[in-house]
Amino acid sequence: MSSQEIGALLRMCRERKGFSQSAIASQLYINRSTVSRIENGHEIPSIDLVMRWAEITDSREFIAMALVGNEAWKRMIAFETVFTQMKAMFTSIA
């Protein structure tokens, strides 16, 4: 994976949980600017940081699949998005 792909994946995981860059930075004990550099592919995070990011964003499976070259995580995200939208729709009807 390129640094841009890693950054995009980590951004998706952060946004999926609704965290701002500042919020994830605080939980990772790093600067918000470091989060920005990582997400934009300008800095490669350590494996330790990626593992902590995955833990905080509850994205271990997505990140593990992506790091080994498995594209199934993209389908999982798509399904999760559809189910979330359906749940919101049914909740508003009830």
UniProtKB/TrEMBL annotation:
Residues 10-63 form the HTH cro/C1-type domain. Pfam families: HTH_31 (PF13560). It comes from the Bacteria. GO terms for molecular function: DNA binding. InterPro entries: Cro/C1-type_HTH, Lambda_DNA-bd_dom_sf. This is HTH cro/C1-type domain-containing protein. It comes from Collibacillus ludicampi. The lineage of its organism: Bacteria, Bacillati, Bacillota, Bacilli, Bacillales.
